[in-house]
Amino acid sequence: MHEDIAERLAWVAVDWGSSQLRAWGLDERGEVLARGGSDKGMLALTQVEYEPALLEAIGEWLPPSGHVPVWICGMAGARQGWCEAAYLPLPARLDQLARGAVAPAVGDPRLNVCLLPGLCQYADGAQRSFDVMRGEETQLAGLVAREPGFSGLACLPGTHAKWVWLEAGTVVRFATCLTGELYGLLAGQSVLRHSVADAALDEPGCREAFTDAVREAASAPGRFSQQLFGLRAADLLDDSLPHGQARRARLGARLSGLTIGLELSALTDELPSDAAVTLIGNATLCDRYALALSALGRSSRHLDGETAVLAGIELAGLELAATGMGPAHPTGETP
Amino acid sequence: MHEDIAERLAWVAVDWGSSQLRAWGLDERGEVLARGGSDKGMLALTQVEYEPALLEAIGEWLPPSGHVPVWICGMAGARQGWCEAAYLPLPARLDQLARGAVAPAVGDPRLNVCLLPGLCQYADGAQRSFDVMRGEETQLAGLVAREPGFSGLACLPGTHAKWVWLEAGTVVRFATCLTGELYGLLAGQSVLRHSVADAALDEPGCREAFTDAVREAASAPGRFSQQLFGLRAADLLDDSLPHGQARRARLGARLSGLTIGLELSALTDELPSDAAVTLIGNATLCDRYALALSALGRSSRHLDGETAVLAGIELAGLELAATGMGPAHPTGETP
């Protein structure tokens, strides 16, 4: 089995985030031969632990000899990660990410590692605020790989949700919302933790509780802080709610709707009325965002996150192959 | 010393919250003879532990014989506290709080304990949402004790900040904002924790960072979630910020301004332009709120929180003395 993989392995793609790494082994045609991963994200690793963590995830796929390209996006390229791949400033062409890639020194001769850069945005006193991304730019490159010259608005939901404006395959602006983290802190650690539970929206009443909350927060974002405490008060006083777990699910759906509605509030005026927002990520979370957008009268379409990141990494690899260049080597290391 | 207190002690006032209790021993004229307290708040106690915790705080003041009235406001009267003093619904006259008081059974014959009720508000589909308070109503009663028939808007900043509309000494509406808790979670446990520090606003640049943030959040509350992540991005990218602790203080002042500005956003239209908001609480926090209100062109005045709670409890005691009634005894207990 592993020998089969090793024989056909052409390259490896890795999405290495703060809390986990996900790796894919691919053949020459871009077919996924193997999947791996671990919870050894950037936050759990010191610099010298990256290569062992990588080998733990993909070592079994590697042929005994050879030099396999390993393309990595995400927090492994942060300053506090394996080796810094400095942010590219906007505007940033997504078919040119490889120009900001760096190659960390590795001990295992079978590895040819390349870290892709993130993007940064400087404040311009108007629409653009200081902002950064690492990892999402590679998923966006995947969108552009599939739809060259893409223009429009993309959203990548998550702990730190990204909204990205693209023009002709170039990122011209983006904004990050702390939505997922805010939800997690409120649901898990605030006074609301006794009143809410994570809810699938197909539980009775949860879908409506979610969309009502989206509309309330989007139309009156200034009441967000009151709406939050209102969840606790409703738990104490509202006789119209069900009891027990169903009550907590209903209030959890409402909390999720409030945080996503707050996120959408400032964007409502900018959401295209004539074109769909492109949601990139896992289906469950993108479905929830699609429902929230729909509650505000907007349409969306979905691009799977894994598909996007693989297409984005492949695009970076093609760029490098086309230019005949290897990645830059970080300052202070011998190529 | 303690014998002096015991000779002159007329009554005891206790503000018993979620995380601490504060107690005052007073003479017949309402002069404070002694102060005590501990971190044995409601969250740290089971029902049978309240009387020992109370005796630990005030036992030394009690005369060997006698029957000292002990008036308690706050979470000790919650359902999960010592003994439930059920919420009074709105509209609630603040000079009649004693009518909702209950007396828990106590073992020590020197104690005559009375728990004051909180207030609750039912949603009316318009301005009023479900809401509850416990403890703040007694501080508001103190405002009314000092200014009988008070009408106006009062704010009690804190973990859960209360905004309260009073008409002729009666609470007609209130709204709770999760502001303090939100700030604590974001500053202490989110990705922002690396970028911010609690800041006194007299540190260089902090006052302006705070007031700018108040105005930004109040005028564009829908951007709150973006503004939060913007603190992290500014820490990474903004060369105009100082370094080290001064940088974190500046960003901490900004985070404080964003959370308070969000709270004020929905209230801006309701803030009286011709009258001052009455801020009740400790001076440091009330000063910060006064500055925030001032940044939005509104005026305020300050009533010290301890003064307010003592005046409120005294008012309740006077009411009971005037009616000649003792407090109600909770259901199921023998008076």
Please explain how this structure is put together:
2 copies of one chain form a homodimer. Chain A is of the alpha/beta class. Chain A is 36% helix and 21% strand. Chain A has helices spanning 2-8, 50-58, 136-146, 179-189, 206-219, 224-237, 244-267, 283-295, 305-323; strands at residues 11-16, 21-26, 32-38, 68-74, 88-89, 92-93, 111-115, 119-121, 131-133, 152-156, 161-167, 170-177, 277-281, 300-304. A 6-stranded mixed sheet of chain A has the order 6-12-11-10-13-14, sandwiched between helices. Chain A is globular, with a radius of gyration of 22 Å. The two termini of chain A are 34 Å apart.
Number of helices of chain A: 9
Radius of gyration of chain A: 22 Å
Summed over residues and divided by their number, the pLDDT of chain A gives a mean of 93
End-to-end gap of chain A: 34 Å
**Low-pLDDT segments of chain A:** 331-335
Q: Which two protein chains have the largest interface (Cβ within 8 Å of the partner's Cβ), and how many residues from each?
A: A-B, 46 and 46 residues
In terms of quaternary structure, the protein is: homodimer
The 3D shape of chain A can be described as globular
By DSSP, the count of extended strands of chain A is 14
Notable traits:
alpha/beta, about 35% helix, five-stranded mixed sheet, homodimer, about 325 residues, 9 helices, 14 strands
Give a brief rundown of this model.
Helices cover 36% and strands 21% of the residues of chain A. With 335 residues, chain A is an alpha/beta fold.
